[in-house]
Amino acid sequence: MKITHILLAGTILIGSVSCSKLDEKPESLLVSEQFYLNENQAVSAVNGSYRKLYESGQSIYNSLFQIAVEMATDDYEAGPRARNAHVRAISNLTHDASNDRMEQLWKQSYDAINASNQNIEYIAQIDTEKINEFIRQRLINEAKFLRALHYFNLVRWFGPVPLVLQPATSLSGDELYVAKATEKEVYLQIIADLKDAENLPQYKSYGDNDKGRASSGAAKSILAKVYLTQQDWSNAKLKAHEVIDKEGYDLFPEFTDVFNIDMKNGIEHIFSAQFKGNSGYQGNSLASRSAPTDIPGINGDYADAWHAEGGLYNSFSSQDKRLSTTFTIGMTSPIDGKYYALAKPQFHKYYDESVVGNQSQSSKNLPIIRYAEVLLILAEAENELNGPSSLAQAAINKVRVRADIDPVGADLIKDTFREAVFEERRKELTFEYQRWFDLVRRGATYYVTKLKAAGKINAAPRHLHFPTPQRELNLNPNLKQHPDWINN
Fold it and tell me: Which of 25-34, 82-91, 222-231 has the lowest average pLDDT?
């Protein structure tokens, strides 16, 4: 079979492989005639699309999320070393459609979606004698999972967005100038893709070479989150229950285990961005943002992103076991042995003790969704359906008991239990790219109130979405700006 489509530059990296290991480093770019001819190439193509989650120092799940999205929350603010005007604008909520971080969110997401579209279409066309049918369908469903994840981010960030489901095959205006679909249409496609991805293998069936791939549990967990975002409480509860009852996940005994390199892709990790430093692969750049700047031998960049004053850190109980993993208030220099107290608490979750002097080579993964969040999804959905029932309490308290804090009691009512769940998400999932989504799905009043309480006085209802990037509006005559950002 010969495929004669045109590939957008840089969309997929292909290399010769003998197995399907996720951290396989693609070695070269192949022209279209060499693509999708056999199983090895199909596996490598899908591996390349995973890498689009985290393949550079400012890719979506490797710091871009933090500087482009989480800066616009009550938990983060640009520190003195964050000199980029676009980053500071997001932190101050003075950003607009010309912001280059908005451009990158949009551009990188659609680049990844195009890679998935190519995988879905062309893997299906590989000659039957060149690929195992089980592997073919697994790879297609992995591509659908990744496409759904990117669209889920896009629709929450930007609202209505173009819905592109076929690979780009030409540079014609008819193919490139796609108008926005409605949010409902985008969500219907996300759900359809994730339902197909539910047919993926369970994570425990993957061998060591395939750890970190999308699984049936990952698809069900993201689907539960999609339903939660849509306030479809019944389906959110149903999918969370399926993950809890059937997929074989559990909490690690200790919270620190979640970020232990030796326990990567373990029983709590449902789906994560995969990092592997000092090996020619990509290190987790959040480690540098989890390490102090001025301590000899540490070489971090903590003053790039600070937590907002008086908020998150002070909300933790002193007995909460998560506090010492999530933050640090000082460190001992590996050079002079002295302890250095920090001027203010610093995010610390991704600090990697194995690469003290070069945190950019951290091998700590970044959880995209983990079992603790599924428990909190169940608690929230059950509360919305039936109030703070024993089921809802058991789900949130499993997370709290591990943290060594008091369980919530039966004295809470629906509204106070809801707030307890959101505060639990805030503490459990700090620095895991959940806060902005949690704030905005509660609506404008909630978001604005929380941001202003953190000192971000420019917060306004329009900040429930980011503006459609001006560059995209200039390039595509069929795109329209989000209504909330017109004349703002």
Answer: 25-34
Query: Which of 226, 228, 215 shows the shortest CA–CA distance to 271?
Result: 215
Gyration radius (Cα) of the chain, Å? 22
What does the block give as tokens for 486? Answer: 């017109």
Sign of the Cα torsion 248, 254, 255, 257 reads negative
pLDDT at 444 over 90: yes
Arithmetic mean of pLDDT, 250-271: 97
Predicted pLDDT at 279: 67
The strand pair at 305-307 and 76-78 is best described as: antiparallel
Q: CA–CA separation, 126 vs 43, rounded Å?
A: 12
Question: Would you put residue 468 in left (φ > 0), alpha (ψ -120 to 50) or beta?
Answer: beta
User: What secondary structure letter does DSSP report for 364?
Assistant: -
Average pLDDT score over the chain: 89
pLDDT at position 306: 66
Residue with tokens 């280059």: 100
Where on the phi/psi map is residue 112: left (φ > 0), alpha (ψ -120 to 50), or beta?
alpha
pLDDT value at position 211? Answer: 93
Instruction: Give the type of residue at 121.
Output: E
Q: Is 10 helix (H, G, I), strand (E, B) or coil?
A: coil
Sign of CA dihedral 173, 179, 185, 186: positive
Q: How far is CA 82 from CA 204, 306, 348, 391, 425, in A?
A: 41, 10, 18, 44, 27
Q: Indicate the residue type of 345.
A: P
Please report the pLDDT score of residue 307 as a whole number. Answer: 64
Instruction: Give the C-alpha separation, 396 to 379, whole Å.
Output: 6
Looking at the chain, the number of H-run helices and the number of E-run strands are 17, 6
Q: Is 106 exposed, middle or buried (0-12, 13-18, 19+ CB in 10 A)?
A: buried
Mean pLDDT of 267-292: 85
Q: What DSSP designation does 183 have?
A: H
Alpha helices, H only, 159-248: 173-176, 183-197, 216-229, 233-246
337: left (phi over 0), alpha (psi -120 to 50) or beta: left
Q: What type of residue sits at position 51?
A: R
Is residue 6 predicted with pLDDT exceeding 50? no
The burial of 321, by beta-carbon neighbours within 10 Å (0-12 exposed, 13-18 middle, 19 or more buried), is given as middle
Q: How far apart are CA 135 and CA 219, in angstroms?
A: 17
Distances in Å between the Cα of 169 and the Cα atoms of 166, 232, 471 are 9, 37, 22
C-beta separation of 185 from 163 below 8 A: yes
CA–CA gap between residue 471 and residue 469 (Å, rounded): 5
Percentage, residues of the chain above pLDDT 70: 90
Count CB-CB contacts under 10 A for residue 125.
Answer: 10
CA distance 243 to 445: 33
